[in-house]
Amino acid sequence: MASALEDPVLLRPLRGHRAAVTGVSFSADTAGLATSSLDRSLMIWKLKKQCRAYKFVGHEEAVTSVQFSPEGRLLASSSQDRTVRLWIPCIHGESSVLKGHTASVRSVSFSHDGQFLVSASNDKSIKIWSVHRQRHLFSLFQHTHWVRCAKFSPDGRLIASCSEDKSVKIWDTTNKTCIDSFIDYGGFANFADFNPSGTCIASAGSNHTVKLWDIRMNKLLQHYRVHRAGVNCVSFHPSGNYLITASSDGTLKILDLLEGRLIYTLHGHKGPVLFVAFSKGGEKFASGGADGQVLLWKTNFDSFDYKEVLKHHIRRIHTDDPPHLLDIYPRSPHLHDEKLQSVEVNPTFDVTDTQTPDPPVVEITSSLAFGTLDDVSHEDLQYPPASVLATSSKRKSEDESESAMHNVDKQIDISPSLGNALENIVEQLDVLTLTISILEQRLTLTEDKLKECLENQQKILLQGRQEE
């Protein structure tokens, strides 16, 4: 008999960022979690019983994404300051700045062999970088609007990108050309990524939809509309059988791709959920939201038949809008008007300990660039253990502090009340920045709708004149 322990479980919230969390990424061994935020910092959380967080400061503007390299030896981050940074996750805070974009960089991602980076920017370009040499290799141009995301395929031969021009494009990295393009007239994709086998792409739509495309047959495989607001991010389970989605409606949804149905709705964030990612083995996943929280979850559902859970959770079942499926290989006819059932997981009721104390935060300011990877010793690449921080006599006072906020007060010698007031102002400015970004998206959609209306009116007038 299935039990609630087989549902996804919130392990703990991680609080340390002072603004919206824009990215999350697990290290290869799942012992560390990297997060990025509009507060201009990225953090590494040591996921042990005695959790500790390290805040890396170096970007001049909001950090828009972060990712561990496949081996976990490096971190890459992108920012609204138009740069990409490569970090060594150690107490020295060493980073190297990659410049080339002429506008805000929206995303950065490693190739699966860790040799290359791909970045997407508001300058309408996609840039590929050498990690080893830390230099720009080439750029891809064809998008006509801001590029929101770019990802390598598992074999590194392809790149998928999505843009506010309403297209998802597939690029050949060898020929440096666009070989395919999927157009979504209903809205643009906020995020796109390959499935683990590299045969499909999932896109997260601003028009509340999630779509799966077969890149071999150039066809739409599945089309889900299970959210009530824009979808900001998706993440494939390593098995490729499940997809988790993050939305501005404040929920996470888990889809069974083999059955083509919604199985879980997860609550916990207060406001839009901006990013979600599975760990390498799929046993955990983490989500980041506009509320500044990172929620760490245990997967559970991938180790059993979820149908049994649905049978034994009748009282907890919530009826949601059904996914609309266009599966070219359906196991059975899909009833598009049928109300499907999903299990609701609400941490307020399902988790006994959500009041875990926030971990201490050690702030690390970026130091000089570390040169090429040949100059980096293996010792420097290790995560900073607490004992190193406790015994080090070479670090400055900010590295010995438990809190970045206490650091600021000490360095500029201001009263605690004034410091709190300044922090509140910064938080309000970050909220305004996020609000403006959302309004810009809505204005773009409104403009597109008005254009369509004008075009339709012109067609109707022309038809009327022809009939006369």
Layout of strands and helices, then pairs:
Blueprint: E1 9-15, E2 21-26, E3 32-37, E4 41-46, E5 52-57, E6 63-68, E7 75-79, E8 83-87, E9 95-99, E10 105-110, E11 116-121, E12 125-130, E13 135-141, E14 147-152, E15 158-163, E16 167-172, E17 177-183, E18 189-194, E19 200-205, E20 210-214, E21 219-224, E22 231-236, E23 242-247, E24 252-256, E25 261-266, E26 273-278, E27 284-289, E28 293-298, H1 306-311, E29 317-320, E30 340-345, H2 347-350, E31 361-365, H3 386-391, H4 397-400, H5 404-412, H6 416-467
Parallel strand pairs: 5-31, 25-30
Antiparallel strand pairs: 1-28, 2-3, 3-4, 4-5, 6-7, 7-8, 8-9, 10-11, 11-12, 12-13, 14-15, 15-16, 16-17, 18-19, 19-20, 20-21, 22-23, 23-24, 24-25, 26-27, 27-28, 29-30
Summarize it.
With 468 residues, the protein is α+β, with helices and mostly antiparallel strands.
Spans of at least 5 consecutive residues with low confidence: 1-5, 309-339, 349-354, 372-413
Q: Estimate percent helicity.
A: 10-25%
Summed up, the helix count is: 6
Q: What Rg do the Cα atoms give?
A: 23 Å
Distance between the termini: 72 Å
- Structural class of the helix and strand makeup? alpha+beta
Average pLDDT value?
80
The geometry reads as globular
Number of strands: 31
Biggest β-sheet: strands ordered side by side in the sheet:
22-23-24-25-30-29
Largest sheet properties: 6 strands, mixed
Strand residue content? 35-45%
